[in-house]
Structures are given as C-alpha cells and as structure tokens.
C-alpha cells in the first residue's frame, strides 16, 4: 500500500488541472461576449448620434434628405451639411465597429424614421458576420 498516496495526489492534480482549464475556457468566452456587448452598445450610440444630427437639421431630414437607399459602407463625399453628417456618421461607425461597419437611414420622409447599423460580430459567441441593429423612432 505504499503507492496509494501517490495515486491520490495524481487524481487530485488531474481534477485541479481540468478545473483550471474550465475556468480558462469560461474566461475566454466572457471576453468574447464582452467585446460583442461593447460593439452593440457602440452601435446604439451611433444610431442616436445620426438621429441627433437629423433633428438638428429637421426640415431636410423630415423631407427624406438623410435617407440612404441601400446599406452604405463607403462614406459619401462631403459637399453639404447632409453629406457631411452622413460621412462623419459612417466614419464613426467604422471607427467604433470595425472596417466592415455600414449604415442605412430608411423612410425618414415623415416623422417616423428607421436607422440600421450592420457590422461583423463573428468574434462573439454565436456571433454573425452580419450583425444588425435597427432603431425606429420619431424625428
């Protein structure tokens, strides 16, 4: 019975090692999910940022002047206040959400308005390469 103590130590070390690996895996998952949550928060902030710019230029926005017909990934050339606002918004999206970030302003010709932000969230747990956030509000 001289080797029984060593077997007990070996079993204890094995259990401890498996437990530590589990903790490391949980930590990695938590970091991925945190990154994904930060990106979602940044997307919400950016939807409200363009809405505030539109509210500051209400007459143009209420007539659909800020509408983007399709998902826009390339910042437009700034030639007036509207295109300058949209350019700054798209650049801010790319700065906060990565180079694949795109945005769209839909149907703001009345009082109701919809802002869509799309970005690559493949790093998050169960993430998608086309994560979208849509905000609907009144101007």
Number of structural units classed as domains: 1
Structural class, from secondary structure content? alpha+beta
**Topology order in helix (H) and strand (E) letters:** HHHEEE
Give the overall form: rod-shaped
* Percent strand: 15-25%
Give the proportion of residues in helices. 40-55%
Please tally the β strands and state the result: 3
- Characterize the largest beta sheet: strand count, sense, and whether it forms a barrel: 3 strands, antiparallel
Trace the largest sheet across and list its strands: 1-2-3
Question: What would your notes on this structure say?
Answer:
By secondary structure, the protein is an alpha+beta fold. The chain has one domain. The chain is 54% helix and 15% strand. It contains three helices and three strands. The protein has a three-stranded antiparallel β-sheet, covered by helices on one side. The chain is rod-shaped and about 90 Å long.
Could you give a quick summary of the protein structure above?
The protein has helices at residues 4-56, 58-62, 81-97, and strands spanning 102-106, 112-119, 131-138.
């Amino acid at each position: 019975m001289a080797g029984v103590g060593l077997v007990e130590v070996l079993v204890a070390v094995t259990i401890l090692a498996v437990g530590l690996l589990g903790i490391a895996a949980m930590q990695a998952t938590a970091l991925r999910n945190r990154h994904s949550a930060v990106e979602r928060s940044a997307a919400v902030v950016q939807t409200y940022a363009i809405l505030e710019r539109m509210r500051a230029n209400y007459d143009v926005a209420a007539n659909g002047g800020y509408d983007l017909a399709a998902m826009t990934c390339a910042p437009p050339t700034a030639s007036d206040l509207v295109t300058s606002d949209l350019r700054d918004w798209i650049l801010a999206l790319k700065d906060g959400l990565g180079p694949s970030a795109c945005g769209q302003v839909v149907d703001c010709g009345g009082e109701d308005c919809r802002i869509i932000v799309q970005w690559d969230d493949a790093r998050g747990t169960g993430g998608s390469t086309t994560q979208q956030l849509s905000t609907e509000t009144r101007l």
